[in-house]
Amino acid sequence: QVQLEESGGGLVQPGGSLRLSCAASGMDFRLNVMGWYRQAPGKQRELVASITSRGTSTYADFVKGRFAISRDNAKETVYLLMNGLKPEDTAVYYCNRFVDNWRAMAYWGKGTLVTVSS
What is the 3-state secondary structure (H, E, C) of the chain? Predict the structure, then answer.
């Protein structure tokens, strides 16, 4: 049974930084491309970044140059370092596998709330 546990969210001022972590279990972590997603109040969930097993990463345009995704296959954990945070980054952040039809995935963890506000 897949389990995903996100952590590291909190309240941060604009321009600040946070590092999110996501511990995965119940899957063959090394075989999966992993992604970070977010859902702001009243909006659809969107893809933030993804990373292959070998560490090749891709980013949504709205976080390029500010966020960095990484992973530790031995720890089955994926990270998201967020710098230069903006109020519009406020959302619940989730990790999950990245597949083409990710919107149809049934299981999601609880996520971790990031609030950017002065």
Answer: CCEEEEECCEEECCCCCEEEEEEEECCCHHHCCEEEEEECCCCCCEEEEEECCCCCEEECCCCCCCEEEEEECCCCEEEEEECCCCHHHCEEEEEEECCCCHHHCCCCCCCEEEEECC
